[in-house]
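Hi R.,

As promised on Friday, here is the backbone we talked about, encoded as structure tokens. Could you run it through your design pipeline when you get a chance and send me back a sequence?
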């Protein structure tokens, strides 16, 4: 069933004078609504991944609720936008994900079996969903119908599977693979959809320390071949994540920076293959968010390297800073979703960023934030 949830009263919108901006991304405006609104007996929030369905003119936003509030799900959104910015965001439907294809109907995921982070729409009207972890902290990527039915799964490359060993204090620590809550935040599909690109948020345990305010880190961009009967990795490239922009004021919560979203952009920005979103957080300071254009050509293929050497002697992917959100006049919230939207009447592509509010209480400053850009071709 489809219902409309009017969010216009919560909007914050700025028309921007684009003439003074440089580069290919022009800020058109933003729209926000407060945390913990409800729809269909669910709490709207944790919006971590966004996909645009041009055929239906709607967006799919996946929630990273691990079952603490309601079962894992995605929302169907109507986002009204034009060259003047975003004028409205409405929730049209909520769909729960099925965990058991052998049982008729939707069998919701039990609490703790998922931490959904990104969503991609395939040409056959099915969805690819990435989860950072299950109850064993293992990431997964699965295919679902638009009705939430589970269809299949893409195998995770072995170097990314977490391995834990007892630490000095006897408690388990990750010594190999993705660290807890720092797995596949970003996926990207080229128009051919013969490949799927993945990126981990922070370095694999065997690849070095995570990014802090003192130093950056290296993550891997993985190319998965989808054209074969069994999806498999065909290449991996090292991507340098910047240090966090500031130190945390809380010694128990060090600042960090990681990749929170990725999309394929070559057809709209031919100088680059991908756009990557780096989101940093420093307690007591706030968030800082940058959009980078990334070129893969010439980078060293590290597919066969079990661990990245320190220092890294190969060729990294090339990255170019295209926009710092704060420098454009928008205070960034916890932005961790990115999607291409509709084409404007002038023929220019739109780009949307979306934040995860972490299901903050109403007294919290965190909100659900949507930021709109126009991509200006060279």
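Update: got your reply. Pasting your designed sequence below so it's all in one thread:
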């Amino acid at each position: 069933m489809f219902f409309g949830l009017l969010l216009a009263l919560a909007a914050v919108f700025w028309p921007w004078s684009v003439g003074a901006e440089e580069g290919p991304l022009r800020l058109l405006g933003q729209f926000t609504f407060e945390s913990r609104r409800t729809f269909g007996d669910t709490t709207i929030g944790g919006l971590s991944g966004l996909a645009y369905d041009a055929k239906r003119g709607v967006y799919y936003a996946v929630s990273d609720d691990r079952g603490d509030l309601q079962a894992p799900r995605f929302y169907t959104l109507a986002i009204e936008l034009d060259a003047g910015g975003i004028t409205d965001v409405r929730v049209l439907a909520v769909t729960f994900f099925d965990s058991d294809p052998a049982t008729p109907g939707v069998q919701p995921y039990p609490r703790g079996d998922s931490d959904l982070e990104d969503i991609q729409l395939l040409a056959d009207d099915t969805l690819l969903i990435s989860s950072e972890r299950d109850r064993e902290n293992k990431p997964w990527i699965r295919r679902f119908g638009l009705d939430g039915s589970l269809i299949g799964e893409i195998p995770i490359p072995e170097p990314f599977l977490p391995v834990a060993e007892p630490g000095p204090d006897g408690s388990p620590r990750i010594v190999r693979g993705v660290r807890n809550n720092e797995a596949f935040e970003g996926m990207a599909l080229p128009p051919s959809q013969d490949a799927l690109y993945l990126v981990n948020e922070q370095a694999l345990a065997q690849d070095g320390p995570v990014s802090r305010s003192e130093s950056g880190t290296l993550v891997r961009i993985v190319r998965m071949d989808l054209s074969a009967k069994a999806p498999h990795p065909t290449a991996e490239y090292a991507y340098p994540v910047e240090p966090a922009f500031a130190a945390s004021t809380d010694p128990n919560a060090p600042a960090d920076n990681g990749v929170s979203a990725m999309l394929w952009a070559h057809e709209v920005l031919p100088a680059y293959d991908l756009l990557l979103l780096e989101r940093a957080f420093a307690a007591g300071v706030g968030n800082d968010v940058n959009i980078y254009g990334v070129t893969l050509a010439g980078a060293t293929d590290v597919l066969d390297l079990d661990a990245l050497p320190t220092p890294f002697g190969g060729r990294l992917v090339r990255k170019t800073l295209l926009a710092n959100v704060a420098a454009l006049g928008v205070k960034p919230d916890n932005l961790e979703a990115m999607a291409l939207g509709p084409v404007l009447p002038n023929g220019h592509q739109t780009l949307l960023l979306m934040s995860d509010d972490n299901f903050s209480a109403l007294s919290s400053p965190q909100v659900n934030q949507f930021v709109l850009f126009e991509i200006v071709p060279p």
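One thing I noticed while checking it: The mean pLDDT is 92.

Thanks again,
M.
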